[in-house]
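Suppose you are handed a protein chain with no further information: no name, no annotation, nothing but its sequence. What can you learn? This example shows the usual starting point.
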Amino acid sequence: MTAESGAGFLLKAGDGSSPENYTTLAGLRSTSMTVNAGSVDITHKGSGGWRELLGRAGVRSLSVSAAGVFMDASAETRVRQNALDGRLASYQLVFANGDSFEGRFLVTALAYAGDHDGERSYTVQLESSGPVAFSAGGAP
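A reasonable first move is to predict its three-dimensional structure. Written in C-alpha cells, the prediction is:
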C-alpha cells in the first residue's frame, strides 16, 4: 500500500436531490473519520476465563470531524441549517484512491472561531444514523 495525501480525504455534503449531488465543503484543512463497533459480551462459565464476543452484533456507527475555512456560502449555509434544524442529511467521505463512505448524518457540533487579524474558521462533527455504504473506487 502506498501513502496517500491527506488533501484527497474530502467531506462532501448532499443537496437533498434525487439522485444526491455532493459538494465538497470548501476550505477543508483537516478531516477525520472513526468507525465505531460496539461489542456484545457473551462470556459464560465455559469460556475458560477468556472473554467471548458475539460477531456481527452491537451498534455500528461512523463519526466524522472536519475543520477549515468556509469559502463557499452555499456549503456553509447548508451545514449550518442542518445543524440548527437537527436535520439528518446525506454526506459523503471520499478518499484519494476513490473509495468512499456515504450515508445520513446528524451535525452534532458546529463551532466557529476567529482572531481579529485572521480568517474565520470552523469545526464540524457528524454522527451517522442508519446504514453507511462503502464503495471501493479503485486506484486512480
